[in-house]
Amino acid sequence: MERSIRFYKNAKHEWYADIPEWAGALDELQMVEGADDLLNWIAASTGECKLLLADEHFEQAEILELVYVREENLGAGGDYILETFKGDVKNHRLWLCHVTEFVFKQLPERIYFKEISVD
Q: Which Pfam family, just one, is annotated for this protein (predicted)?
């Protein structure tokens, strides 16, 4: 499965995923607990970016590894680790909520991603 998703900052500098078919609350699309830090690295000084995400490897992909599946009362979804980013060691832990399962139809063991141009 491969999908491109645009991420954007609001006026409070909070990151959100732009998933038009999401029927849940907007706050469920907010990127927190380390995911916002990753988006800051990717977008640098801009307020938006677009990522190609996949559950299978593709060329020039960065890799998020699932390290812990959260129970429903802990927010569901999973904790991932980004060992390296653009060749630099990061060992950055981040949480991706249950929206990840909505996008991928499961909680992937690995999520491959890279930045693509915003249309």
A: DUF6717
